[in-house]
């Protein structure tokens, strides 16, 4: 009797996966049987995280998404995995802390914020759009309410996330065969949130794990391409 063919495991690439929302998303996808390619800037932190996964199902590559060579290594890892079903642009750069007013914003820092939050996701998408098309996969870019609200001090990060939202919207219009999303996760208890509010206690913010079900809805491609708020996705899930 012939053995029926097995369905290949889905593959996700998650940037910024050593902590916060990226790590929470990676753990949830791994628990659901996905294979992972993950990255983060700091090798020690990423290696520590990778040891918590089945080594046969995760590829961890340390580096900065703003660097072309690192993006090429991520694309090579996807090629080695044989497919790509989900690309999560989670790696972000807040900028200087405390957050400066735009009139005082160091232009080299402003440029770096945009390089990480806008240029890097576009460049990585360009490398990986064909594997995504092959699986009719999904792209999720992590945005922020600072992309649409004018908060003092958030001009660097907010303008970068607004640009990212527009890139996602145009990519979706240009690629109707894919599901392409940006998602505002809301405030979370993360290291970035703490850097944004130095000296304040951010422990009252929701844990990143509480946002993961919203990202999983997008990963399952239950919704049309577009920009979503995690809170609304979670409320709809509870009410369903």
Secondary structure: elements and pairs:
Layout: E1 11-14, H1 20-31, E2 35-40, H2 43-50, E3 58-62, H3 68-81, E4 86-89, H4 107-135, E5 138-142, H5 155-174, E6 179-184, H6 191-196, H7 212-219, E7 226-229, H8 230-239
Parallel strand pairs: 1-2, 1-4, 2-3, 4-5, 5-6, 6-7
Distance, first to last CA: 43 Å
The named CATH superfamily:
NAD(P)-binding Rossmann-like Domain
Using only C-alpha atoms, the radius of gyration works out to 18 Å
Number of strands: 7
- Average predicted local confidence, pLDDT: 95
The sequence of SSEs as H and E is EHEHEHEHEHEHHEH
- Classified by CATH, the class is Alpha Beta
Q: What spatial order of strands do you see in the largest sheet?
A: 3-2-1-4-5-6-7
Task: Please report the number of helical segments.
Answer: 8
Q: Percentage of helical residues?
A: 40-55%
Fold-level CATH name:
Rossmann fold
Q: Based on the structure given, which CATH architecture is correct?
A: 3-Layer(aba) Sandwich
Report the portion of residues in β strands. 5-15%
Q: Could you describe the 3D structure shown?
A:
It is a single chain. With 240 residues, the chain is α/β, with parallel strands linked by helices. The protein has a single domain (11-235), classed as NAD(P)-binding Rossmann-like Domain (Rossmann fold). The protein contains 8 helices and 7 strands. The protein has helices at residues 20-31, 43-50, 68-81, 107-135, 155-174, 191-196, 212-219, 230-239; strands at 11-14, 35-40, 58-62, 86-89, 138-142, 179-184, 226-229. The protein has a 7-stranded parallel beta sheet with strand order 3-2-1-4-5-6-7, with helices on both faces. Helix 5 (155-174) links the parallel strand 5 (138-142) and strand 6. Helix 3 (68-81) packs parallel to helix 4, helix 4 (107-135) packs parallel to helix 5 and helix 7 (212-219) packs across helix 8 (230-239). The longest helix has 29 residues, at 107-135. The relative contact order is 0.13. The mean pLDDT is 95.
